[in-house]
Amino acid sequence: IPSIVEGFQKKYPDSGITFHFAQHMNSDLLTELKAGRIDLAFCVTADSDVECAKIGEQALYAVVPNGHRLAGYESVSVRDLANEKMVLLHKSSGLRATVEELFSDEGVPLHIAYETQECNSALQFVSIGGCVTVMPKVPAMQLQPVTAIPISDRRTYRSVFLAWRKSGTLPPGLAVWLPNIIYLFIAVYLYRKAPK
Question: pLDDT tens, 70-115?
Fold first, then answer.
């Protein structure tokens, strides 16, 4: 996100838009957005009470401690995780709902050992052994002794949306520049996804 914001500010230096960031669970972000306390939110679920534009997808990975029986696999299925103790994000997390749906669709029960508020904490639980998790790649994975393994099942990603309040409630500057912001986020996502 910082590089995208920097790119927007370079491309539109006179937009009059300033960015202030807050990090919350998906449901909390939507609550803040609907209440008018924030203008835009990055969410992983669309909500009919706000406008949403899909700006990308994040692949999901099984994350296991280095040395785990699955750590050497090129990919795993949800069924490979069937008997594993899991650390998942709190129920108010959009990622939690995505993981629960993924396991449910495959008929695999979840064995939840721990719940955390964010991905970095989940990685710390995985790194000490005894549990695994499912999440998108995050920078903190490079700092922990964990292995991220692609999941081979059919739906192994989560969508990312940019959300804003319905028409007429945006600050004037943002209303004018919103199409450019959406375009920029989609362009950066497609660039990063393109084969190198």
Answer: 999 999 999 999 999 999 998 888 889 889 999 999 999 999 999 9
Rounded to the nearest 5 percent, the helix, strand and coil shares of the chain are 35, 25, 40
Q: How many residues does the chain have?
A: 196
Give the H/E segment covering residue 160.
Answer: strand 157-164
> How many other CB atoms sit within 10 Å of the CB of residue 125?
22
What burial letters (b/e) apply to 4-38, b meaning 16+ CB within 10 Å?
Answer: bbeebeeeeeeeebeeeeeebbbbebbeebbeeeb
The encoded tokens of residue 78 equal 């949800």
Q: What is the pLDDT of residues 118-153, one digit of tens each?
A: 889 999 999 998 799 999 998 889 999 999 999 998
Is there a contact between 4 and 188 (Cβ–Cβ < 8 Å)? yes
Are residues 102 and 120 in contact, defined by beta-carbon separation less than 8 angstroms?
no
Whether 77 contacts 151, CB under 8 Å: yes
